[in-house]
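NitT/TauT family transport system permease protein (Petropleomorpha daqingensis), 296 aa
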Amino acid sequence: MAIDLRTPNVAEDRSVVAGLDELETPVAAPAGPSLGRRFVRSVLPPVVFLAVLVGVWQLVYVLKLKPSYALPGPADVADTFWHTVQDGRATEAIWTSLSRGAFGFALSLVIGTLLGLAMWSSRWLRAAIGPIVSGLQSLPSVAWVPAAIIWFQLTDAAIYTVVLLGAVPSIANGLLTGMKQVPPLFDRVGRVLGLSAIGRVRYVLLPAALPGYLGGLRQGWAFAWRSLMAAELITYSPRLGQGLGQLLNIGRELSQMSLVITSIVLILVVGVAIELLVFAPLERGVLARRGLTTSR
């Protein structure tokens, strides 16, 4: 009796093809959490924390653990905050600081990216200035303010110098770290495909290093914002306008603690807004496109 040896192979081949087709079938992303669940998970915790914080603050104020000029009550600070918003000082200060921060961060982005690429491409350069760049990253930006004032007097150039020295090392190190984590095979594949050095960086290495680069950008913005506040706090001059740091300094000079706290709250609100509106969505998009997370 003849035995058909092909039948099991055909069935196995069909099974393999079906499995491959199944792998290529797009998988529907799981449904995200409901609006109520997202509210409970993301919005409610900070609201509860702020309520507890204000309650403790009010309790300390009522018990008079500190004199009222040193620690005003929440109602006094809320009143000062509202008047600062009404008379336009808050808007002016936010716009002045935010425009400086955006311009300084854009400059830092260009310089830090070029510096990071140069350090990645040259082992000698990386050995020569790598430790200095890392050291600058840990140096408090306020240390540069006196030098910047001596170099550029009380001008915007002094403020931007401090911002650059605070943000550029973080961006360069973030890019360098991301490039180091790219498998060498990617670069070899780019060479095999005939890409030039710029083409490999543009189409292969930078996209592969994007998560690390994005972390460096986020850290660079944080350093830029802190550096800007330190510079504005010290480089006070009517010619420079009134940023958030200058508003904070005015509160200190007037010994008006409610204005000091109002300025701190505005600085914090701007920092949180930039994080929530710019960097968090950007990071979620990059990670989602790479299949590293499904949560949005």
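The CA atoms of residues 3 and 275 lie 70 Å apart. The chain has one domain: 76-289. ok done for today
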